[in-house]
């Protein structure tokens, strides 16, 4: 469902992504992991058609993100850090207006809002104005808005960041429930325990390069570590040692 081949992105002289290739399939929650600056947001923005790659290709649900961005936009829902809500509207008004943009009738919108109220515990946020929301209420409505049209692919970039344990639990349960045939969820985080809980397979990025990709149990077995955080350090240190050795070889 997602095929990325030799994808690179440079900002000026800075390479944010270098030659990344990976595949994610239907029915998966696929994690993108890495520390600050690893390139997760850049990669997700390219997939969401918000940025163009410098080279390489990305194809989602059979559509090339550069050649056919409109088709890609129709199958995705996106949540990223910078999303706001109109302060004077209630959650219900925001969701109804987005449903309208997707061509849903009022009855369809209200049925979907009821489903999302249960799944995301929207509660009070539905009838309170967005300007009065807590961080958790805001993020839940932002997520509900991203999935109002029941997209085939859900892209969540650091979606749990800043949430308290209740809101975070709701989000992780929602992501786990999104694991359905025909659907793909892309979940970026730098919190390894979150990925361990919800992701089937993960890609680890470091300084714009793909360090590894695979099912979590396989990564643990390969590194001999007991959790993903330890495996992450082992893999990243290995990658850094290789880079340093290559630089020494190049200089001599
Ligand atoms: N618009 C931009 N102009 C210049 N450099 C950028 C731009 N956006 C990102 N970068 C750089 O590209 C690299 C990758 O950034 P990116 O935001 O993709 O990483 P990330 O893994 O999502 O990190 P974080 O968790 O901090 O969001 C970083 O070194 C960042 O400083």
From TrEMBL:
Domain ABC transporter as annotated: residue spans: 2-232
Pfam families, alphabetized: ABC_tran (PF00005)
Coiled coil segments of this chain: none
Assigned keywords, A-Z: ATP-binding, Nucleotide-binding, Transport
Gene3D superfamilies, alphabetized: P-loop containing nucleotide triphosphate hydrolases (3.40.50.300)
A GO molecular-function descriptor: ATP binding
Cited InterPro entries: AAA+_ATPase, ABC_transporter-like_ATP-bd, ABC_transporter_ATP-binding, P-loop_NTPase
Family: Belongs to the ABC transporter superfamily.
Name of protein: Sodium transport system ATP-binding protein
Originating organism: Deinococcus budaensis
Organism classification: Bacteria, Thermotogati, Deinococcota, Deinococci, Deinococcales
